Amino acid sequence: MMHWRSIIRIVGLLIALLSVFMLIPALVAVIYRDGGGTIFIQSFVVALFLGSVLWLPNRKHKNDLSTREGFLIVVLFWLVLGTIGSFPFIFDKHLNLNLTTAFFESFSGLTTTGATSLTHLDSLPKALLFYRQLLQWLGGMGIIVLAVAILPLLGVGGMQLYRAEIPGPQKDNKMRPRIAQTAKTLWLIYIILTIICALCLWFAGMDVFDAICHSFSTISMGGYSTHDSSLAYFDNPIINYIITFFLILSGCNFGLHFTTFNQLSLRHYFRDQEFRTFLMILGSLVVICILVIYLSTAGFSFASSIDKIVLQVVSIATTTGFSVDDTNHWPPVLPILLLCASFIGGCAGSTGGGMKVVRIILLSMQGSRELKRLIHPNAIYSLKLNNRVLPERIIEAVWGFFSAYALVFLVSFFIVMASGVDAMDAFYIVSSSLNNLGIGIGDASDSFHNVSDLVKWIMVIDMLFGRLEIFTLLVIFSTAFWKS
């Protein structure tokens, strides 16, 4: 039996919490006197009212959550906050966005996808630009930090939510048994990385506003920028290398950062098979791109272009989506290669999207094992990760995830094609959404403002599937889920 009043109480609290964050861009509007603060005050009032209406009548209902309720709250978190997050875009009369585009912008930010329909960013109020970055930052760590760190403090159990956010393979990082304490530590690490990144960008030449905004989208791996030309606006190699470094940190399993925080040691990074593979993938992609560009471009300047190539590769491969170079001028094979790499994405437990490196490792190991079984049918082969034997149940779960991921991609791809989009652009659009990448290639390379409303809704659904790692959302549509 579902504890509906407890669920409604939690949703009300989440809405009220988001309403408070609406005041921050309102303050930015006051500081820069850009006249963009009114929409955030309006959003604050409406969101606080809605949150209070849901919370007050149910404030005394504090039941322990079942696994089913944990999954439901995770889904409601993204659906409700994505809806509330669209209020400033709806209230802004200057933007004049329809409901679909307002929802698209909000969900794209909160899921750290980073796709946008907005143009002329350089002329928008700083308050609105800051809000877009803030949405990504709040969504960056997802439920594992925001909900799991906050809800236990309100008397709500968090283990089910932690499980719901990461339904795939789990690795033992020797985290503290109390999820609430673990989540608070992860939150602290997230804030520290954001502050250090902002300071480095400021020292490298960004102004304070841009440094803060781009640190938000770097650590969250969202990819939003405050400029139409994204990071190409700054044309600064030092900034490019700084962001590349922090993207690699953000693409790493935050459990490894947790261990560093507790043990003050870096050895475990290079003992981790997933992290080593992650670095190997990025390094291989960088080398391939440099060689292909060098061999096919007569005017290639190694010294002036290496930082842009490295950042562009890391940005797309980790599903961040910053743009620092026009990939339409690259040899055609490279944008496709990088887009395919985004299906791998970051490490499990990172702020990146994609299927995650650890799953690709396990799929590769399983494929290798099947080849060995063809040669030695009676032999018994066990799979190991970090020198630990993995249960067959994990391998089955990874194959199930891969199948579901492929199914969602294909269904979305054909629906987008049926709407009138050509096959190549449909591939770009669905890949960008499902992998939470956000960057487009070809006609959609700068903005998705020309995309139809139907396609935008498909993209929003795919963003949620990608952010919730497919099964967390699919399970809600199962009849078994709703049976008592």
3D architecture notes:
With 484 residues, the chain is mainly α. Helices cover 64% and strands 1% of the residues. It has 23 helices and two strands. It has helices spanning 4-21, 23-32, 38-55, 67-84, 87-91, 99-110, 126-140, 142-150, 159-165, 179-203, 208-219, 237-251, 254-263, 267-271, 273-296, 302-317, 333-341, 357-375, 392-418, 423-434, 453-467, 471-474, 479-482, and strands at 384-385, 388-389. Strands 1-2 form a two-stranded antiparallel sheet. Helix 4 (67-84) packs across helix 6 and helix 10 (179-203) packs across helix 11. The radius of gyration is 22 Å and the shape is globular. Residues 146-177 have low confidence and may be disordered.
- Name the poorly predicted regions: 146-177
**Percentage of β-strand residues:** under 5%
Number of helices: 23
Shape: globular
Q: What structural class should be given to the helix and strand makeup?
A: mainly alpha
Strand neighbour order, sheet with most strands: 1-2
Helix and strand element order: HHHHHHHHHHHHHHHHHHEEHHHHH
Major β-sheet profile: 2 strands, antiparallel
Q: Mean pLDDT, nearest integer?
A: 85
